[in-house]
Amino acid sequence: METSNLPPEESGSVASPPSLGSCLVNTFAAPSEVFERLRPAPARTSTWLVSAALLILVSWLGATLVLSQASVKQQLSDMQDKAIQQQVDKGKLTEDQAKQARAAAERFGSIGMAIGAYAGPVFTALLTPFWWGLLLWLIGAKILKGTCPYLKAVEVAGLANMIAVLAAVLKTLLVLVTGNLLAGPNPGLFIPDLDPTKTLHAVLLNLDLMTFWVLAIRGLGIAKVSGVPTGKAVGLAFGFWVVITGSLMGIGLAVQSIFNR
Fold first, then answer.
1. Per the structure, how many domains does the chain have?
2. Cα 92 to Cα 135: distance, rounded to the nearest angstrom
3. Which domain holds residue 145?
4. Are 144 and 233 in contact (CB under 8 A)?
């Protein structure tokens, strides 16, 4: 049976706000306690900023290690060649055009991959706290009628990014061990010829254990700081993710279908 999280003054004691270091570490070990102690404290910019910096640094280190692997470079080359050959088979490219496209891919493909690998984490780390902060604020303050300022929701989303830091480490290790750029803690890990352009494979790639952990922490966090039922908050966090992810996948598949005609 669900119970609402009582405000500190109703629970009989007022705990002092935890230090930044304690928040970051205990998000893994004791997230419920961390968020309960954060509720009466003013929102801190340093919380989401430090977690964002850690996510960027760890992701950059992982990208450097992954892109230095010969197996990964070969996989990227094979993927590019496969895409070009599909265009040839459909009559959209001549053999001469395909040859030129392969030469351009060989020359600039690795550069584009590197730009994405290093720029992506910056956008993710800096935008996620505010985007998910907005969604969590809607869950805690509007949908479930709790009390939570927007910046407090941003702090919750920022702390949840500590799980994303661990996810980046795990992703890097799996790629290095398997030599597969798409390797991750999801069912796709067990598919030999994983193709993200296939709908089923794309779905399996999104069923990521670390993503589910992040969502659970987001829901738990907003429940604790808003004083709303944890089960409902976690369920809504997952619901938002399903809708957003499903919409993005649908758009991607639609665009892919248009260009593959």
1. 1
2. 43
3. 16-259
4. yes
Distances (CA, A) of 63 to 44, 58, 185, 256: 30, 9, 17, 26
User: What kind and span of H or E run contains 206?
Assistant: helix 199-206
How far, in Å, CA of 136 to CA of 143, rounded?
10
Identify whether 77 is part of a domain: yes
State the amino acid at position 3 in one-letter form. Answer: T
How does pLDDT run along the chain (261 residues), one tens digit per residue? Answer: 444 454 444 444 444 668 889 899 999 999 999 999 999 989 999 999 999 999 999 999 999 999 888 887 777 777 777 777 777 777 677 777 777 777 776 666 667 777 888 999 999 999 999 999 999 999 999 999 999 999 999 999 999 999 999 999 999 999 999 888 888 999 988 888 887 778 888 889 999 999 999 999 999 999 999 999 999 999 999 999 999 999 988 888 777 766 666
Measure the CA angle with vertex 105, ends 182 and 88; round to 5°. Answer: 95
Residue type, 36: E
219-to-94, 160, 164, 212 alpha-carbon distances in Å = 52, 9, 15, 11
Q: Is residue 3 part of a domain?
A: no
